[in-house]
Design brief:
The chain has 292 residues and is an alpha/beta fold. It is built from eight helices and 14 strands.
Length: 292
Amino acid sequence: MIALKVKNLTKSYKNFKLEIPELTLESGYIMGLLGKNGAGKTTLIKCILDLARKESGEVFIFEKPFNCDETEIKQRLGVVLETPILPGQLKPKDVKEIMKSFYKNWDDRLYNKLCDLFEIDQNKKIFQLSKGTVMKLSIALALAIRPDFLILDEPTSGLDPVARNQFVEILQSFVQSEEKAVFYSTHIVSDIENVADFVTIIDNGKIIFSSSRESIEEDYCIVKGPASESNKIPQSIVLSCKKGSFSFEALCKKKEIENCMQPGFVIEKPSIEKFYVMLVRRDEKDEVLEVL
């Protein structure tokens, strides 16, 4: 089943425009949505969830058109927002009771287990909790409804390294069932380095890359060599090139690089992080700033 499909979605603000011609995620997979702060990640998620009014386009969840009134879909949808919307005067145990009354698949045992894992005090008011603990509570609430689809916007914001690692392990367990899917927005690439099946990169409101994690290693490579030799690589196969005083590194299409190899060139497999950083900086001036 297709968990998420976005078609011809647009949303404009004063100095920004989101344009997403198409985006698809099938059940059974995790898609990491990467982008700099301000690239459009949160705007896209708000439009998907109908929390921001889109100017045009369609959003389908579980192959059905989605808007805020789709109660049936919401029963299967877990959401964690970058800024959790939780009433500060209530305690976690109070919020649990409210959520429990709305969601038919609510799992008390799972909620308690996650709260123990994350060390969430059920008797403190939410405004008394740290930012990281509030985020952990949001994660526990989203998972306890036993969703089939998780939409996450910067879910590890404010989490310490141990909690981030725990969360990644939870996601890996969550998608073991082929019926589950995760759409995971973040600018912390290491969070999805080992869990994402697909990577989508958004920059300035537009998707500039969307494919499987494996394709990054199979279809692209990093070429390094002397700065004076950088012009030996045809620009048609270069996605991004950064030159220093003595050397260069270029993100290139792998299949076409073999005929351009020169003595002193080195080819490396790109990590997701390296691929992402080079791709979003592709339009910057070639010369790397020299640090004095």
